[in-house]
């Protein structure tokens, strides 16, 4: 069975440096036809572009600035406009190769941001990236930890038409506001051990995509996640929705093609 699209993964993470060929081969063997590779900071933009060239028609780049900056946990902080300034020339340089702008969003986790000033800086950075996405006619690949409602409200205020809310941790009722706005929500393999299982119950399948967020959010905590684990998320959705695995694969594939129009030339409908 072939036709899964991983709509949000960090294939450029250093955890994959030693065996990236195997990771990609295993993805293909397990039915994946595309990996949507997202960025977190400007320092990995070139690496993502190179991976998309190394695996053409399979790894598709998204460039954007994550609301949390700092590679190591002890140095993590909220994003600033200076972080975005470093990224803008590269987004302009590679704009024709991009599938989306991402990973962007808001993260109001208290240890990351504990002031209204910090939250406002995140909002300004997200608004600027939403403007860029509109100018380039690209969707947004969105992070929204502890900020589900503010993120969806901001996207709507900015007139964002196409967005993927990845690994959404907000209330299902808030997610439904996103559904009404036409947004999609991607489900990771960690759903099997997550508190967000009600989200899968309530979200229409027509607004769901699949993701792995590799190397994070795998079926097992603290174990490196890989794109091949997409089937874990798909099987869970199939079970909750009472449909076949093939149905989940096909509908989520079509949803991904609606969300990311630049995928269409590479994938048979």
TrEMBL record:
GO terms for molecular function: hydrolase activity, acting on ester bonds; metal ion binding. SUPFAM superfamilies: Metallo-dependent hydrolases (SSF51556). A divalent metal cation 2 binds at residues 143, 166. A divalent metal cation 1 binds at residues 8, 10, 103, 213. The keyword Protease does not apply. Keywords: Hydrolase, Metal-binding. The keyword Metal-binding applies. CDD domains: TatD_DNAse (cd01310). PANTHER family: DEOXYRIBONUCLEASE TATDN3-RELATED, HYDROLASE OF PHP SUPERFAMILY-RELATED PROTEIN. Exhibits 3'-exonuclease activities and apurinic/apyrimidinic (AP) endonuclease (in vitro). Show preferential AP endonuclease activity on double-stranded DNA substrates and 3'- exonuclease activity on single-stranded DNA. Belongs to the metallo-dependent hydrolases superfamily. TatD-type hydrolase family. This is TatD DNase domain containing 3.
